[in-house]
Amino acid sequence: MLDDPAPLLGIYFWANGIDWTTTDPDDLDAVEKFLVKDLAPHVSAFDSYPGGSSIPQASHALLQSYNGDARLGIFESDDPDRWQWVLGSPATELWMDNWAIAAGAPHPEAAHAFIDFVLQPDVQLAQVDYIGYDTGISGIREEAEAAGLERLDMVFFDENQVETMHEGKLTDAQDRVVSIWNSMKAAAGA
């Protein structure tokens, strides 16, 4: 399982048609019961980056993983055909990374130069190939296809898939969400 409270609780909420950012105490009680009592006994690890270990070592039969990390792990596996990646359903998380320069950074011009470098098309293609994520740059999918990059179904999502993705948010229930995550980890003993 991902070592991250939001998508951990999300698997229950999404499967049961509940907004994964709910603050309803009854929903939180229900997810805690399911995760701690029903699911925890079957969890052997909490690992947000199984591509570097669990997948290549084939130490688990079922994993929850970020798409780019799963792709990397499958590439590193001695038996890549052992693995099948699927996008979580009926709903899943919409995630994104970004580059930001902190106010008051000592060398903002160097930070801008680095970002400008990273945004160059050839660098973006190398990024997609290595990290396995859509970088959001116009035309990058077509560039990746033309370059013959593999497993692009794990990188780029169609409109129907994107419609199943939901943004997270911090809510007043954050402390409870983290407490449930900790309780599940303790119950799993992983």
Helix coverage percent of residues?
A: 40-55%
How large is the share of residues in beta strands? under 5%
Number of domains: 2
Main pleated sheet: 2 strands, parallel
Top CATH class of the largest domain:
Alpha Beta
Strand order of the largest sheet: 1-2
Any idea what the radius of gyration is? 19 Å
Q: Helices and strands, in N-to-C order?
A: HHHHEHHHHEH
Poorly predicted runs are none
Class inferred from helices and paired strands: mainly alpha
CATH architecture of the largest domain: 3-Layer(aba) Sandwich
Mean pLDDT: 95
Number of helices: 9
CATH homologous superfamily of the largest domain, by name? Periplasmic binding protein-like II
Morphology call:
globular
Please provide the count of β strands.
Answer: 2
Reported by name, the CATH topology of the largest domain is D-Maltodextrin-Binding Protein, domain 2
Keywords: Signal
Pfam families: SBP_bac_8 (PF13416)
InterPro entries: SBP
Structure write-up:
Keywords: Signal. The structure is a single chain. This protein is an all-alpha fold and 190 residues long. The chain has 9 helices and 2 strands, in the order ααααβααααβα. Helix 1 (5-15) crosses helix 9 (174-188) and helix 2 (25-39) packs parallel to helix 9.
Brief descriptors of the model:
190 residues; mainly alpha; D-Maltodextrin-Binding Protein, domain 2; two-stranded parallel sheet; 9 helices; globular
Provide the fold topology.
Elements: H1 5-15, H2 25-39, H3 54-57, H4 67-76, E1 92-93, H5 108-118, H6 121-131, H7 140-146, H8 159-163, E2 165-166, H9 174-188
Parallel strand pairs: 1-2
Pfam family, one: SBP_bac_8
InterPro entries: SBP
Keywords: Signal
